[in-house]
């Protein structure tokens, strides 16, 4: 692949990711949630079972201090809460509240709407192939905001 083709592919992937991020955030905000994209990226780490501030910071690619500020904002907005860590008495586990789960479900609905638009252009089979190929390239992310 020529350098110019690689650059064009990179630009297309980044444009698709940026458009998808914006669509999801806009849709979630339209459903009444006061969030920004960084919150959604945090939710992807917190949803499975919570995380410590240190783990969240590593996931987001930010310092522990920046992750702490984000958690404080999410606590104030009612999306997360701090709980005792079940395995480490020194740590606190950050978990989604019911409001956080509602926001996560809203994001899933909006993501499905956005992907349906891709299906309309490419077809369902091609979108599945795209998903599978991208999963092979970057199976675990990272899924991080641009600050």
Q: What features would you describe in this structure?
A:
Helices cover 67% and strands 7% of the residues. It is mainly alpha-helical and 147 residues long. Strands 1-2 form a two-stranded antiparallel ribbon. Helix 1 crosses helix 5 (98-122). It is globular and about 50 Å long. The model has no long low-confidence stretch (mean pLDDT 91).
How is the topology of this model organized?
Layout: H1 3-30, H2 37-46, H3 53-60, H4 64-76, E1 80-84, E2 92-96, H5 98-122, H6 124-137
The average pLDDT is 91
**Strand order within the widest sheet?**
1-2
First-to-last CA distance = 31 Å
Main sheet, how many strands, which sense, barrel? 2 strands, antiparallel
What is the radius of gyration computed over CA atoms, rounded to a whole number of angstroms?
17 Å
Shape: globular
Low-pLDDT runs of 5+ residues are none
- Could you say which structural class the secondary elements and strand pairing correspond to? mainly alpha
| Record field, number of beta strands | 2
**Helix residue percentage:** 55-70%
Write the H/E string, N to C: HHHHEEHH
Strand residues, percent:
5-15%
Q: Count of helical segments?
A: 6
Key traits:
single chain; 147 residues; mainly alpha; two-stranded antiparallel sheet; 6 helices; 2 strands; globular
């Amino acid at each position: 692949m020529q350098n110019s083709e690689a650059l064009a592919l990179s630009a297309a992937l980044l444009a698709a990711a940026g458009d998808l991020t914006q669509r999801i955030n806009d849709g979630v905000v339209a459903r009444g949630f006061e969030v920004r994209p960084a919150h959604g990226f945090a939710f992807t780490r917190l949803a499975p079972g919570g995380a410590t501030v240190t783990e969240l910071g590593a996931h987001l690619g930010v310092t522990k201090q920046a992750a702490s500020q984000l958690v404080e904002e999410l606590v104030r907005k009612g999306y997360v809460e701090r709980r005792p860590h079940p395995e480490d008495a020194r740590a606190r586990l950050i978990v989604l509240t019911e409001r956080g789960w509602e926001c996560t479900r809203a994001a899933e609905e909006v993501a499905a709407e956005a992907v349906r638009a891709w299906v309309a252009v490419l077809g369902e089979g091609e979108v599945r192939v795209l998903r599978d190929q991208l999963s092979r390239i970057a199976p675990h992310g990272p899924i991080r905001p641009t600050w």
